[in-house]
Structures are given as structure tokens and as C-alpha cells.
Amino acid sequence: MIRRALGDPVIIIVLIISLSLLGLVVSSGRYPTSTGDVSVLFPSFSRTLTSLQKSNALFGKTQVDVVVVRMRSEGEKELDAEKEVDIYTLEEELAGLDGIVSLMSPLQGLAKVPPPWQLISEDGQWGRFVLEVSGDLSEDEAEKLNHEIDHLLAEYRSLQPLRDGSFFLTQSVTREIEHESKKIIPYSIATLFGVLLLMFRNPVLALISFVTPMVVLAWFHAIIALLKFPLDPVSQLCPPFLLAVSTAYSIHITARLAQKGDVKAVPMGEINQGLFFAVLTTVVGVLSLVLLDVKGVTDFAVMSGFGIFVAGVICSQLNPALVNIFHVTNQKKSVLPIVLRKVILRGRGAPGVVFSLIGLTMMIFSGVSGVQVHTDPQSFLPRNSHAYRQVMAARQHFAGNLVLGVYFQRKAGVRTKGSKDVLHLEDIALIEKVKSELRKLKGVEHTVSAGDFIDLYREMSQIRLDDAESESWGPGSITNNERTATRIIIDTDLEGRKLLELRNAIKLLLQDELKQSSLDARIASLGLLVAEQSNHIVRGIINSLISSLLIVFILLLAGWKSIRIALIGLVPNVIPVIIVFGSLGWLYGEINLGSALVAVTALSIAVDNTFHLLMSWKAADVGGPQIARAERRALRQNLDSFINSSVVLIAGFTVMAFSAVAPVAQFGLLLSIALLVGAIADMYVLPYLLRRFA
């Protein structure tokens, strides 16, 4: 048998490519990596992104890390001498770490003349270090710095240290991605293979069906490792997604072939044509997600589309070769497929079932009214994780751990005395007036500007502003060295839609205050970019769905050359999409980057079974009164593979529903629900529509 396998050219080609990829990965030392970089959550094209890039060019690219420490217990009036020494020592050690550009210490907040930054909590019990971390660190350097900070803080447990800030969130999300990837993929493999054994009750047939998915998974990881393409918060969904989809393709072909035990006795042209349309619609569907205009989603779409294409090619060649070599037939029937087969055949096309399903769909869809968009980076942290608890605890003491910047420059083409770009005293005075108005806006916890440091240094009588340009958390972080730009830094605890409302309020204020001036102002923030996803996601989902439905309709029309059949084929695939949006409202009340992918993904996968059924229906005699007979023939031919592939897909994605990361769990659960509804619609709604309207 081994000799026959090695004599098959398909087996040889797959083996050579697999070994070559493995050898390249091992020899190059490039293995799959993960990143929690929140930049993948940004809309690809936005004015806020442009503003942030310009701000980084003017003031330097940095991230903020916040360390909150306990300074005194409740009832204590003065800072304990031992804690003061610990805080001072911790300050020195933090400042000495590579990658820390500068920092502000709680001890500065206790000075007779406190700095503009809020470093002591309102109740006086907690203080915070505000660390400026270089934005030019590599992934390895950033990870090393994060570990060094954690290790250092572990030595100061008496201060009960807590962490927050964009740098900490990025590193925490990276760790969670690595943990989830290592956990979900083995669980998915075990679950899918267990389901295959349950469905086939034949270890050899189960192994044949599982060879292709494992090859696809190995190729996927090898290619992204060689390209040094890290898995981010969204693209981490690719491996389990490809594993489930490629298993469904594999089982659909293997189940059909195993019915006869002989490849020559099976209409491979019909099977491959159905597989071609299934792969094409799935690839087109996931690629339409690029319309969401978010880098992480685009990565997921491109990587998944490529993986699905590879899975289709390998399935169409490798599965027949394996079945031909082993001559395996599926003589045993599992209890579950038998029961499902009887239920489906008995109720197929029944009007009562069809109208009940449509009524239930409309009821569930009413939940869409309660859906809101939620795109905050900490949603990728498990609620029970140490990192998530730290962030939430830190924000109880200092609401303003998130920074929003408003920076000012001269308008292009404006002529003034002296250098046309340098800011003057009247400009600073106007900016201070703007700052006083900003403090009145809801959600603004604290503001820092150049004027605050001017007043501080005047009162301290130590140094002049001109001498402090290199002090990063002093004037150097507020006014650039060329004195051509300055900014107001706003502390806020707002995220998502509330942050967008604050942004709009700031815009109106700036338009009113600066309309007669020579200054131009822009708002820049990492958090604001993430919050802007709410608009991008809603608009992107609508665009993706419309384009996917249009392409599916065109493919159905091209395959059957009938507008009526094309419309009939769309109906059972629109139902699960409607269910997804309704379930979002009833189950979660929110859309995040994980659940945003579900509707289009469900449509692109659910339509596969429709194509297989319609392809078999087309191959039968469908003239006049023979429609019912053709429908029964198509259903009976595809029923085993249909049941097996549907159960495999639902089981594969249900594993993801147990993830501790909310977007991953929601993606898995909602996709499982959508595919279940899609399978029911294909079994009951499609036959009914074919009988009534075909």
C-alpha cells in the first residue's frame, strides 16, 4: 500500500512541497509569531491617522505606560518614609530601563509646586508613574522591556503596583493571542477528528478526511513564518477557520467517494464543479471583508482567501488519490447521521417548517435594534486575566490613563513677523484660552499645555523654557524643538462612541475659537483611531454584504442561466445572515472586530451546500413533473456529505466559542449558529422553493 501511495504523483507532489516548506522554516529559523499591535485595529485611511502620523513626526513616536502605586493607606495623612524610599528607588530603576524615554513620578506630585500632570489621585492614596516608551522598539525589544517592567514591579509588592496605558495593552494582547492560538488549534484538531470518527465510524476514512486539513494548516503556518507575517488580534482567527473549512471540503468529497468505494464510479466532474463554486464563493466572500477598511480585517481576508484556495486545490486532488489507494468504503452508519437523515427526508419542503423558520428569523432579527459597536483594545483581553483586572483597577484611581492630543501649527501661507512657522506669544495665549474651554467639556479629566510648564518654571525659578526643550515630559513633549508646533494633552477615560462625541465637541470648539486666527489645529490619538472603527465597521459590513450577495447571485446566474434559480439560491443564504445580526443584539448587544466578520463569513460558507445541492439537482432530469424527483435525487446524493460537513463546521467553530477572548468567542458562537440555520434552510427552504417556483 505504501508503494502504491508513493507511486501516485499527487501524493509525491504534496509530500515534496510539505517537506520543502518544513525544511525552509527549520533552516531559516523563522517560526510563526504573534503581535498585539493595536495599529491593526485602525481604519486604513482616515484623517485621524494622518494627524497622528504628523504628530509623531513633530513630537516623536512614543507610547504611554502607566504604573499606579499605593502611596498611603486609608486614614493616613503623610507618606510613610519606607514607601517614599521605595517609590524613589522604583523611579530610578524604571528610568534606567532601555526604551524608557522619560517618566513622571508620584513624588513630583507631592512637591510644593506640583507638575501639570495629575500624579496623585483625588483621595491622595494612590500615585502614578507616567512612562514615555520609545515607539521605535522592535517586537523583541518591546517584549523584553515589558518583561523587565513586570519583573521590577514584582519586587515592590508593598506598593500594590497596577499597569495601564497603550504600551501595556499592546504587550498584553500579544501574550493573549499567543496563548489562545496555542490552545484553540490543538482543541480544534482533537474535536474535528473526534467528530469525523463519530460520523464515519471508520478510522481509515476519518484519517483520509483529516489529511488535507492538516496539510493546509501546516502549509499556512509555514508560509506565514517564511514571510514573517505575525498573527494579530484578528488574523489569529485564520488557523482554526481554515482548519474547519478545509475539513468540510475534505469530508464532502470523501463521503461521496466512499459511498461507491471506487473513484471511477463517482461523477467527479459534478463534485469538482460544486467544489469549484463553493471555493470561489467562499474566497470572494472573505475577500470582500477588505471593504471594512481595517488592517487586521484585511489581513484576515487575504490570508483566509489564500488558504481556502489552497484547501480547495488540495482536496480536489489529494482526497480522490487517498480513497483510490485505500479502496475504503463507508459501510457503517453512525447513529447521529441516521437520525438526521430521517428527520431531513421526512420534513423536506414542508410548508409548516419553512414558514416557522422564516417567522423565527424575523423574531430574532428584532434584536438588531440593541446592537452597538465596541472596538476597545482591552476587549481582546480575557475578563478573568491579570492584565484586564490591572487595567480596570488602575482606571478606578486615575480615570485619565488614555491620552488625547490636540496640536497646533501655523496655517500654510500665513505671513507673520519673523519666522513664518515659529509660534509667538499671542499664539500661546490663544492656545491657553482654548485649553480653558476644553476643561469645561464632559469627559476631559485633565489638560497639560505649554502654558502650564511656563507657569511651573516661573514659580520654581529654576530654569527657563528655552533650556528645557530636551525634557520629554516637560516642554519637549508639549512644544517641539523647532518651536513650530505645540499641543494640549488631554487625559480622558472615554472610549468608543463617547470618545467620538468628545472629538466632535473639540472640533466645534476649535472651529469657533480659531476661525479668525492664523493657527491650524488637529486632534490625534491612538484611542480615537480605534474608536473611529464604529463608523468604518458598520459601513464596511454593509458594503461587504452587498458585494458578496451580488457576486453569489452572478455565480448562480452563470451556473444555471436562470434569474429565478439564482434568486431561489440566495434565499436560504440570506436567512443565516439575518439571524447573525439579530443574535448579536440578543446575546451580546455589541459588534466588535470578531463578530463583525461573521455575517459575510457565514454567507460565504453557507452558500457551499447550496451549490452542491443545486449542482446535483441540475444534473438530474428536471423537466416538468420530474422536478420533485430531481430534488429527491439531489438531496439523497448529497445528504451524507452534507450532514457530515455541516456537523464538522459547526463543531469546529463551536470550539472557538469557549475562548476567553471575547471577539474570538463571539466569532465562533455566532458562526456556528449561522451555519446551523443555513443548513436547516438548505434542507427545508431550498427544496420548498424549488418545488414551488423552479
Q: How would you describe this protein?
A:
The protein has 694 residues and is an alpha+beta fold. It is built from 24 helices and ten strands. It has helices at residues 2-7, 9-28, 47-59, 81-95, 106-109, 139-154, 166-200, 203-226, 238-260, 268-287, 295-326, 335-347, 351-365, 386-397, 425-438, 450-460, 475-478, 496-514, 526-531, 533-560, 563-588, 598-619, 627-656, 662-693; strands at residues 62-70, 100-104, 126-134, 162-164, 372-373, 402-410, 446-448, 486-492, 519-524, 590-591. The strands form three sheets. Strands 2-3-1-4 form a four-stranded antiparallel sheet. Helix 7 (166-200) runs antiparallel to helix 8 (203-226). Mean pLDDT is 81; it is low at 463-472.
List keywords for this structure.
8% strand; 694 residues; alpha+beta; 10 strands; four-stranded antiparallel sheet
